[in-house]
Amino acid sequence: MEESQINNNDIDKLFNKLSKDAELSGYNLNPDTSFTKSLVRGLLVNEKRYGYEACPCRLASGNKQEDLDIICPCDYRDPDLGQYGACYCALYVDESIKSGSKKVMPIPDRRFIRDEEKIDNKNKIGNTDLKYPVWRCKVCGYLCARENPPAVCPVCKAKKERFEIFIGR
Fold first, then answer.
1. CATH number for 90
2. Which residues pair with 86 in a beta bridge?
3. Is residue 95 part of a domain?
4. pLDDT of the chain along its 169 residues, tens only?
5. The whole model's pTM is what?
6. Residue 130 sits in which domain range?
7. How many CA atoms lie less than 13 Å away from 161 in the CB half-sphere?
């Protein structure tokens, strides 16, 4: 299916899925349905282009490993929601924006932090002698101690590939 073949049924189907998932996980989609559906269309376009739903407001490389941080919901959603009330593309918003008491404002892109500014969690926490590694969902921060990460995050529904080793091996 080409980009031009994305129709309103495709958009409505993904919009409804995202709405349901957001509600079940304690998140809100932007209440401007027309705007939100344009973002959903962008997710579908990127899925057709690259094979994954890269954020429609960022340039994806086409290399899934390089773009894991911008697959929706992106790694930056929760920090952006906490600081600005909306994620970078404004697909997800907090209660104040949903209710109309606050407007979406421009948000700086967190994606390009210099490498030396990144925190190495293993060094910060110190060495531990755990039976299992602790996995962290890079999208929502969910932690679990087990041999392998879960197939899907129970909190935000991000896929297995969005987990990183937080402590351990």
1. 3.90.460.10
2. 93
3. yes
4. 456 689 999 999 999 999 999 999 889 999 999 999 999 999 999 999 999 999 999 999 999 999 999 999 999 999 999 999 999 999 999 999 999 999 999 999 888 764 444 444 444 445 556 778 899 999 988 898 888 888 888 888 888 999 999 887 6
5. 0.73
6. 119-167
7. 12
